[in-house]
Amino acid sequence: MKYDFETVHKRFNMGSSKWNDLAKYGVKETEDIIPFSVADMEFVTAPEIVGAIKRELDTSIMGYANPTSEYFDTVCKWMKTRHNWDAKPEWIVNTHGIVDAFFEAVRAFTNEGDGVILMTPVYYPMYMAVNSLNRRLVENPLINKGKRYEIDFDDLEKKAADPDTKMLILCSPHNPVGRVWSRKTLEHISSICLKNNVLVVSDEIHFDLILPGHTHTVYASVSDEAANNCLVLTAPSKTFNIAGLQTSNIFIPNQELREKYLASLQTHSPNPKCNIMGYRASEAAYKHCSEWLNECLSVIDENRKVITDFMSREFPNVNVYDLEGTYLLWLDFNSFGIDYKELERINREEARLFFDEGYIFGRQGEGYERWNIACPTRYVNEALERMKAVYKK
Description:
alpha/beta, 41% helix
């Protein structure tokens, strides 16, 4: 490979909560153990991004900065070349992150007591956005088909028909179950939401992380009607492991919705600029890092195969779900008959495995683990051997 996907920089005492969590359980910096939890990568940053930041430091004043026309054009070109979507620069609103963006969408387009649909189990900050803002959580549980999940459209139609339900926060690709929703599926979602005046907020932060054999469809590309009834939340942060630079691109094709979103944003964040390094890094990533991303995806896919083959051979009763998108593998350990809290204890204290526990994604996740596999393959192999030694007991 051209790029380095072997080096790991251990982030103890550097503000990384997932690395500091290891220390709480007695893991020493000298031990070759890494966390598999919070969704950032254990890969070094692409040198093109590092170079762009260094050049900015060498040649620029660190003053106020807005995104340039070149920045917007670069983002839109990526959408066209990578996703075949003709996005327009004027649709983009920058935010510090995707979580900020969907919190803001809930504030802007719903009122207290309104229903917000989530397809559960799902990324846990989405529950926070609904509950902490005093909206009503409307669960549309995904149907567990054994190796993959599907959407319960009958249930979705029933719940969208409630006139007090105003919004669907769609996770696409879906975190934690790893589904990449097909165009046909998105068309079905769109038809239900348009018929019932339900606004779609499509969180597509993992949209570049698509495994072989699958294709991501941007929600707004489904139809003009869908585009006018949605926000598409994107960022280079997961794709290129630059979440700490806090730069996201929120596409709102409908001008009225865009103006309403901005007006809401300015009531409590009157100067919502991102930082200058985030703009430069994002621009460099989208211009120069396609090859890095392709190699990164090949490592993720190899890790998926290693874990799937191992489980099939050593623990066939552990259900490993098909991973179509994201770098987050979803595994079901319920066949062991272990309470989900005891499963967490065994993993952390005995096997020294640090996953994101399935229960944080909703009650349907009890007894499941979400494994972040964006790391060198040797760490996956070592983790599997620790798992084998402990679980065989």
